[in-house]
Amino acid sequence: MIELKHIEKTYRRGVETVRALRGVNLTINAGELMAIVGPSGAGKTTLLHILGCLDQPTNGDVLFDGVNTAGMPESQLVKIRREKIGFVFQQFYLIPGLSVFDNIALPLLFSKKPAQRKKIEQLAEMVGLEHRLNHAPAQLSGGEMQRTAIARGLVNDPAILLADEPTGNLDTENSEKIYAILRRLSNEGLTTIMITHNPELAARAERTVKIRDGLICP
Ligand code: ADP
Ligand code: ADP
């Protein structure tokens, strides 16, 4: 379970301060499939980055099973990110010079774990890419690229998957496939949180949280 307690995030921009989050309270249950929606500039990405321990709140507590990550040093946050959290982005961020196999395996390298062929093959199969393991990202369709990114996000067995606009660059058919994968993962117990502008996707999440001007709408 993740609990956000009165999260505030303020950015400095020159002499201006931007209040990106203004007191967000949110409890996310283990295995939940949650959509975060709201207009551009509302604070969605900021919230996701705080959930992912990529950024720290200015104020407030971020509790993972009771452990507060707010104020933790970066060295500890890195560990939490690697062990507990998988990330998926709109832009995929695959490494062009590496095969699909090596892209999926990349987080293992950063965690100083050995490449586990079997595991990578299983993940590729789970996202329907078992026949693409030796391809380069440029040889894939957009949907295949995102499915590669999902497999990469799962290779460290995270408890939480965070997805920022996972279908933002995909057509309806490919968005459906991504949704089906996320749904299956959440049914298997993975806590899955996605930012989306896709109303159909948001409608099918177990819970939709709407953010506006740095606050969750009631
Ligand atoms: P959303 O994802 O809903 O579009 P963001 O979380 O990206 O919203 O941004 C919320 C607000 O914070 C916006 O006004 C944005 O310009 C500002 N912001 C986000 N990141 C930064 C940053 N690194 N530095 C300064 N301002 C930022
Ligand atoms: P998206 O809308 O796809 O979520 P954004 O365009 O809002 O992404 O933001 C992309 C990245 O730029 C994010 O990491 C965010 O923190 C950062 N960012 C957003 N607004 C600003 C800003 N005004 N100044 C600096 N960085 C920003």
UniProtKB/TrEMBL annotation:
Keyword Signal carried by entry: no
Origin: domain of life: Bacteria
Source species: Pelovirga terrestris
Protein name: ABC transporter ATP-binding protein
Family indicated by similarity: Belongs to the ABC transporter superfamily. Macrolide exporter (TC 3.A.1.122) family.
InterPro entries the record matches: AAA+_ATPase, ABC_transporter-like_ATP-bd, ABC_transpr_LolD-like, MacB-like_ATP-bd, P-loop_NTPase
GO MF annotation: an example: ATP hydrolysis activity
Span of domain ABC transporter: 2-216
UniProt lineage: Bacteria, Pseudomonadati, Thermodesulfobacteriota, Desulfuromonadia, Geobacterales
Keyword field contains Transport: yes
Cellular component aspect of the GO annotation: membrane protein complex; plasma membrane
Keywords: ATP-binding, Nucleotide-binding, Transport
